[in-house]
Amino acid sequence: MKKSYTIEKVVLKPVQANKLPPILLVHGAWHAAWCWEVFAQALNQKGYEVHYFSLPGHGGTSLNKASLNDYSLNEYVAFLSDRIDEIQPAPIVIGHSMGGALLQIYLQNKKLPGAVLLASIPRYGTLSLIARIGMRYPRTLIKSILMYKSEVIVESAARSRELFYSADNPVDYRRTQKLLGPESMKILLQLMWYGTFKKIKHETPVYVIAGDRDKITSVPEQQQLAQYLNAKLTIIEGQAHCLMLEPKYKELINYVDKWVKNTVI
Fold it and tell me: What per-residue string of b and e applies to 246-260 under the rule 16 or more CB within 10 Å gives b?
């Protein structure tokens, strides 16, 4: 008997019908739908219909391949495209980190009402990000490459806290670390190469948002990305990589809400 394939998807409907566009949230590497729960509820309270999901092999979404490492970048982008096509009218898409990379690639051939890149993988791919991790945790990176297992990087609660959160974030990082899972090494390696990200051909408004305490990407990389995409840029002070789980997540939502109402609607 063929094994059933499950996709974890969550939809939050607004209390009252309105003219606000729906919003789709796309998580990054090692994460899953769970990372959006609090953020999505707060965004929904602003009146938005909010959709979020888990990529294949993440959270409650099952694999339809033998291994997560068998998935390619194009397959992740196709999975995202399918989720976008399910939503009518077309959503504004918010992509975090690797999710921002998937969104950038999607926009090379397709158009959206709007796109928000949160602490996204920058224009030149993940090479600088991996180098940054390697300088901070050289043995961990070498072990991850030799074992061909990306989850080695986030298997320590203390290390995941350093990578993803600001020092004063009260998040229960031990709990969130247990929710982290493996990531496709094939995709992480594909994202290393310059040329992965090309100019967006269609006129989709883009908004780049990052934190100035991010240890995965950097403010100069986000500034360069915004300039390359002709996008609005906001840097939130005191915030680290997982912006949707940082103390100022409501401030982040206010930035997004204002941008949508001033730019998209």
Answer: bebbeebbebbbebb
Cα 117 to Cα 230: distance, rounded to the nearest angstrom: 13
**Per-domain boundaries in the chain:** 9-264
In this prediction, residue 65 carries a pLDDT of: 87
Is the distance from CB of 261 to CB of 233 less than 8 angstroms? Answer: no
User: Which stretches in the chain have pLDDT values below 50?
Assistant: 1-2
Q: Please give the pLDDT value at position 3.
A: 57
Omega before 170 within 30 of 0, i.e. cis: no
Which ranges in the chain belong to alpha helices (H)?
A: 37-45, 73-85, 98-106, 127-136, 138-147, 157-164, 173-179, 185-190, 219-228, 249-259
- Name the class of domain 9-264: alpha beta
**CB under 8 Å to 220, separation ≥6 — which residues?**
none
Q: Is the pTM of this model over 0.85?
A: yes
Residue listed under structure tokens 């959006």: 36
